Structure formats: structure tokens, C-alpha cells
Amino acid sequence: MEISDQLRCLFSARVEEQDGSYVVEVPKREVRTGSVAAGDTYRVALVPSPASGDDGAGGGSDAGDAGAERRERETEPRSGRSPPVEEGEERTVEIEDIGEQGDGITRVERGFVVIVPDTEQGERVTVEITDVRENVAFAEVVERRSYYE
């Protein structure tokens, strides 16, 4: 799957029914970190999570459950803001979420998303940044750490 350079945030959420509509809640941390702003309009992509058991064919009652979402801002891309990480840099992070392809997801300064394969939610790891794009970076695990370190 190709990830757009306009990616603003990435998180997992359930599709919930509320007052005759279906709703996906944006976590408060996405607004607090400045990834998205209340009242702005975004394009939303829903991708089945590995745990949902959906084969991507749709039509089932669980087709929208536990979707990992990608939100892209429809207005101008972030300009003048360089990513807060660099290739080769090492960071110790906590894996906050698991993406649709099973990769770990963490956030650093300004809510910047870093994708880390072969990790589990809640795991604390030291990673090396291997690829940096405007709105997302990729990293590999250098060391697995105890949560209390």
C-alpha cells in the first residue's frame, strides 16, 4: 500500500452507531498534537485491521469494524515544517497502535507518525529511522526494552 506524503495521522478506531449514523471518533491526542484541527475537513480512508477478520471484500456486518484509518488533509500540505526525525537517528519509543498490515505505529514530536515493523502494541523499543517522508517515517528495531527502563 502506498502512503501519501499528505498523511496527517494514523490510528485505529471502531465504527460506532450513534443516533442513526455511523461515527469514527478521532482520538483527542490527534487534535492536541496538531495533527488535525476540529472543524477542518479531511478525506478518510478505512482499511480493515488484521484483527477484524475482514478479507477486504466488504458486505459483511463487520466490514467497518476496527478499521485503521488514514486521514489526509484536503487543504495545503504542511509547508515550512520539516520532519522531526532524520534517517539514521535512533529513538526509544512506545508502540501505540498496530496498523492494517501488522506494523507498529508510534508518534514523536508534533504527532509525527513512525511505522515500525515486527512490534506489538505497548512494546517499548529503540529504533533506527530508515526512511523519512514529509509526514511519516519508517524505522527498524535496534533493541527491545523493558517498559520500566
Task: Itemize the secondary structure elements and their pairings.
Blueprint: E1 7-13, E2 16-18, E3 21-23, H1 28-32, E4 42-47, E5 67-73, E6 90-94, E7 97-98, E8 104-107, E9 113-116, E10 124-132, E11 136-145
Parallel strand pairs: 9-11
Antiparallel strand pairs: 1-5, 2-3, 4-5, 6-10, 7-8, 8-9, 10-11
- Distance from N terminus to C terminus (CA atoms, Å) equals 34 Å
Q: What is the C-alpha radius of gyration, as a whole number of Å?
A: 16 Å
Tell me how many strands there are.
11
Could you state the oligomeric state of the chains shown? single chain
Main sheet?
A: 6 strands, mixed
Total of helices: 1
What would the principal axes of the Cα set say about the shape?
globular
Give the % helix: under 10%
Structural class of the secondary elements?
Answer: mainly beta
Overall pLDDT metric: 76
How is the largest sheet built, in terms of strand order? 6-10-11-9-8-7
> Low-confidence parts lasting 5 or more residues at pLDDT below 50?
52-79
Beta strand %: 35-45%
How are helices and strands ordered from N to C? EEEHEEEEEEEE
Task: Please characterize this protein's 3D structure.
There is one protein chain. The strands form 3 sheets. The chain has a 6-stranded mixed beta sheet, with no helix packed on it. The protein has 1 helix and 11 strands. The chain is mainly β.
Highlighted features:
six-stranded mixed sheet, 1 helix, globular, mainly beta, 149 residues, three-stranded antiparallel sheet
Quick structural gist:
This protein has 149 residues and is mainly β. The protein is built from one helix and eleven strands, in the order βββαββββββββ.
